[in-house]
Amino acid sequence: MSALIEFRSFNKFFGEQQVLDQVDLRVESGEVIVILGPSGCGKSTLLRCLNGLEVAHSGSLTFNGRELLDKGTDWRDVRQQIGMVFQSYHLFPHMSVLDNILLGPLKVQKRERREAREQAEALLARVGLLDKRDAFPRQLSGGQQQRIAIVRSLCMNPQVMLFDEVTAALDPEMVKEVLQVIQGLARDGMTLLIVTHEMAFARAVADRVVFMDAGRIVEQNPPEIFFTNPQTARAQQFLEKFSFVETLPKKAPEKELERL
Question: What is the pLDDT of residue 1?
Fold first, then answer.
């Protein structure tokens, strides 16, 4: 049975530097994959290749059985199915929250405004920001803006969501509200690929942890194995920098996130 997403012998270079080296990765529908690794190991580049923001040099990348590296791939169409949220919010400062969210559904998908607005307001209510629909980005906290960025992507009805260090630019007290939104999507069964340095969150939400180093996937395992019994010396060395991980239970319940 084919995976929803599959990288095979996937390579990417920046000039002479190889940043992704023979990557093989299968992602099943509904699976939550958390990608960990040191800075510069290729985590974000992997997500950007999946969304067409970076061009691969060789290998194969399929989505729903479709080869995305073909020259004829319509990446504008693919990005409607594979949503991505970045560390920066990229909200238009001159537009209200609601108008930011509706821009894609109305301009790209050509949807009826009333239907799109109803969905946008339902999503805003879900993340606790319905009362901010007429506000402008400058009137919102960083955590609120990041939740709006997530809603904007969800309103395009993607099959997959990619999260690239979405809490890295936030003050610590704002991190929890964003992570809870992502955890809610995971509970709903959405396919997620998440790059993060939040170890407790990774352990609580992941179905599988993918550990990368120097452009390669070094190890991949369920979180209860990865965090308690890493199979490679490199992963063990990485985790030693996060000594608090050892204090977490073998299977972190949903309540674990509440203590972040």
Answer: 62
